[in-house]
């Protein structure tokens, strides 16, 4: 009888949520953002973080830990204790970086996907002084002036790959100028130090509305609801080019499933709030939400897509 009682207690313990998971969160939660403040990832993290601070009754602390094309922040989060108190808010760099950079972790093994926050187009922007208003004019200029430069908010990632994909199809050569985030790239683009930029839509919107930048094309299948007047690459004649940039939430592998589920539920609720949705849409990000399983499939699918693009476009580390 004693052995049976011990066995039953062990079974109940295995099937019951851990005490730590039941009590979570009982202190502030850290959101690690692997890019500087002001970009789309940071905006998404702060919008959701404000809502979660209210619903979880604990402060959400956003920590911008940039560098190495996001790898520093990604690795920091992945190596943190899997207790629900460190959360990574990152882009599809999680899926693309392993194909071009030497990483100290395998992101798809070291991280557990929680939820997709948003998707947005990668947009090709031009300073008015460049004198172009369409992709066709960019192509003509690049053929007349080989080595035309463009800014990106990261090193070798989606923003870079979109332009190289475009250049390959168009038969032109464009030279990348990588920055450590969307905000510093925008600053130089608006100042005219670099005349083209391939960036997430979020930091471009205010400058586009002010008329200080022109937006020439966006990389999504359909036009973003926030940029209905900007053609897609496909509409502009680059038929094969479609690539979304997403922002999503991860936790270190080994985090209790109860915490993953709790986070997913609360973030889905946040994304359903009118003010939060409006905040995303105003920055040209479409709020998504959904299950952890659906997000995991997206992460895995993009991992395969980037593997193909890196090979076909002969992408090299910066």
- Number of H- or I-type helical stretches: 13
Q: Which CATH class of the largest domain?
A: Alpha Beta
Which quaternary structure do these chains form?
single chain
N-to-C SSE string, H for helix and E for strand = HHEHEHEHHEHEHEHEHEEHHEH
Low-confidence stretches: 6-15
Kindly report the average pLDDT value. Answer: 90
- Report on the biggest sheet: 10 strands, mixed
**Alpha-carbon Rg, integer:** 21 Å
Overview of the structural elements:
The structure is a single chain. This protein has 318 residues and is an alpha/beta fold. The chain folds into two domains: 27-119 and 245-312, 3-Layer(aba) Sandwich (D-Maltodextrin-Binding Protein, domain 2); 121-218, Periplasmic binding protein-like II (D-Maltodextrin-Binding Protein, domain 2, 3-Layer(aba) Sandwich). The protein has 13 helices and ten strands. It has helices spanning 2-15, 19-23, 40-55, 71-78, 93-96, 107-110, 135-144, 158-170, 182-191, 205-210, 257-271, 274-282, 292-312; strands at 29-33, 60-64, 86-91, 111-126, 148-152, 174-178, 196-200, 214-218, 244-252, 286-287. Strands 1, 2, 3, 4, 5, 6, 7, 8, 9 and 10 form a ten-stranded mixed beta sheet that branches. Helix 3 (40-55) packs across helix 11 (257-271). The radius of gyration is 21 Å and the shape is globular. The protein starts with a helix and ends in a 6-residue tail after the last helix.
